[in-house]
Amino acid sequence: MQTNETKVALVTGANTGVGFQIAKALAENGYDVYVGSRNLLKGEDAAQEIGGKTQAIQLDITDPDSIRHAVSKIAHDFGYLTLLVNNAAISNAGIPGRTLWEILGAQKASVASIEEMRQVWETNVFGTLALTQASLPLLRKAKAARIVTVSSSLGSLTLNADAENAFRSGFDAVYGASKTALNGVFLSLANELENTNVKVNLVSPGFTATALNNFEGTDSVEEGSLEPIRVALAEDIPNGSFTGPATYRTAQGSQIPW
């Protein structure tokens, strides 16, 4: 068991995309990083590529046993956790091979598959909260801990209610609304923990080209990772913030309306 002078981070969905970039940046800045991956071999490949003090950990946030084993390992190795980055998410659970726009069309509230909606929310909302709840005892044992949850400006009710928002047509009942629910859950958590040693922050990477959207995003993964990396590394951001890039950011990121 280590002293809690060492900064320890767990990043979910870290074997690829934005999660990989966050894990890499944390390792480069002195963190001991657990690279969370549903497929352990892919996680091990990612950890080897990142280098530094990284190690892969098998983690499927929809599997209670997987969560329990991952948290137990961190408890055994360190006894505390400094930073939890909730990055793992899925955009759909339907027929593979569809374009982003075909997926969005099938996820409109009037036609969305309730079963697909349940599967997406199981990962994006319930699994994310389940891991967070399981990690809280370790986070409370750190001198100062943070929970950074990767969300999306697509989940903003304020932006999607604005008729002048050109992207509001992409707000769907499956993925988009899952991010609205995620925002609500973690704002609730931020309010609950505001007088504790654990801060809660949400961040949007913007429309980043990753497997989440069949690589049809407008920003590269490096560009889309800038704001999540900034938030993951920053220790002075106020509790309860929700920031994002592109048109919703300044040089240091700016608040996205809920």
Structural description of this entry:
It is a single chain. This protein has 258 residues and is of the alpha/beta class. The chain has one domain (8-255): 3-Layer(aba) Sandwich (Rossmann fold), CATH 3.40.50. The protein is 41% helix and 14% strand. It is built from nine helices and eight strands. An eight-stranded mixed sheet has the order 3-2-1-4-5-6-7-8, sandwiched between helices. α1 (17-28) links the parallel β1 (8-11) and β2 (32-37). α1 crosses α9 and α3 runs parallel beside α5. The longest helix is centred in the middle third of the chain and has 27 residues, at 114-140.
The count of domains is 1
Summarize the main sheet.
8 strands, mixed
Rounded to an integer in angstroms, the radius of gyration calculated over CA atoms is 17 Å
Task: Indicate the CATH class.
Answer: Alpha Beta
Q: Note the beta-strand portion.
A: 5-15%
Distance between the termini: 40 Å
Please provide the count of β strands: 8
CATH superfamily: NAD(P)-binding Rossmann-like Domain
Low-confidence stretches: 213-218, 247-251
Widest β-sheet, arrangement of strands: 3-2-1-4-5-6-7-8
Apparent shape = globular
Q: What is the CATH topology classification name?
A: Rossmann fold
Mean pLDDT: 90
- N-to-C SSE series? EHEHEHEHHEHHEHHEE
Which structural class best describes the helix and strand composition? alpha/beta
Helicity level: 40-55%
The DSSP helix count reads 9
- What is the level-2 CATH architecture name? 3-Layer(aba) Sandwich
